[in-house]
Amino acid sequence: MPQSQPRFVILDRDGVVNLDSDHFIKTPDEWVPIAGSLEAIAALNQAGYRVVIASNQSGIGRGLFEMSALNAMHEKLYKGLANLGGRVEAVFFCPHTAADNCDCRKPKSGLFEQIGERFGLELRGVPVVGDSLRDLEAGVAVGCIPHLVLTGKGVKTRDKGTLPAGTRIHDDLAAFARWLIAGDGAHKALSSPAPSAP
Ligand SMILES: [Mg+2]
Ligand SMILES: [Zn+2]
User: What is the pTM of this model?
Assistant: First the structure.
């Protein structure tokens, strides 16, 4: 990846940033961040990463909640992050159901392609963080590097044992962020010359 390209991380939402539910997250009250996840996003921002979310939200297509509810959830996300000095660039979501056969519902890669277009971003090598196989598959299809977290459906996903080659596993988003930031630090320490004495 060229040095000039801004660094991005693409996250799934439910089960990665906020607690998941088998009954869908339908209201801002049901949208509850996973402990340490907003701090992790803020830490990534501080380390120079721009964070984007790519999320299947078939609850809209199923008529379980309205766009206004989704917007209110994301207001809660943005405010929580702002309190910590963090931000996400955008939340890209697929509102469709499987029956719609759209191009954006993960494991299809449409959301990722939208992100690439919006930010003029070369997706190859960008870390994708998810708790479900389809998150990782959607990213891998466009060259992203897969990272599984064990929050949400992550343990179930790990135990199925069908992860894309090269998937790295982290306890949660905070552990992923620490790993990514520490790795960068190590890389910089190795590649920059030692400071010389005056
Ligand atoms: Mg998820
Ligand atoms: Zn879709």
Answer: 0.91
